[in-house]
Design a protein that fits this description.
By secondary structure, the chain is mainly alpha-helical. It is built from five helices and no strands. The protein is elongated.
Length: 137
């Protein structure tokens, strides 16, 4: 007797997962670059370090990799990973805003607003990639 295919979790190989994570880093970094350029054009301080490529690309990579690890853990240990991810991802994105608000004096509303948007964009790109290479069901 075989197990119905709907009950079998989809598993991708490590190269597929790594490729998806790297693609998410690349796409999110490009989106971050666009947001940084728009923020600088709109009047964010030119010396605001978080809008420099070296800062946001590194932090994007760290966030996407950390998110992938968390996603894999949720996928493995949760009885209902879809429900858990549905509230966990937005909660973590909002928590990630806290350090940005501490930079308000350096970056002003435009700089900090761009950083907040970067968090949302990175999360959206990462979740899209995770769903492709590490499906929850």
């Amino acid at each position: 007797m075989s197990i119905p295919s709907a009950a079998v979790a989809v598993r991708r190989g490590p190269l597929v997962v790594a490729g998806g994570v790297l693609a998410a880093i690349a796409v999110a970094s490009v989106a971050d670059a666009v947001l940084a350029l728009l923020a600088l054009a709109a009047g964010a301080p030119g010396d605001f370090q978080p809008l420099k490529a070296s800062s946001y690309i590194f932090l994007t990579a760290v966030g996407v990799v950390a998110g992938a690890v968390g996603w894999a853990i949720v996928r493995k240990v949760s009885k209902d990973p879809e429900a858990l991810v549905r509230w966990l991802v937005p909660t973590l994105v909002v928590v990630s805003f806290v350090p940005d608000f501490l930079l308000f004096g350096d970056g002003g509303a435009i700089g900090v607003g761009a950083l907040l948007l970067m968090h949302v964009v990175v999360a959206a790109v990462a979740v899209f990639a995770y769903r492709k290479v590490m499906p929850l069901s």
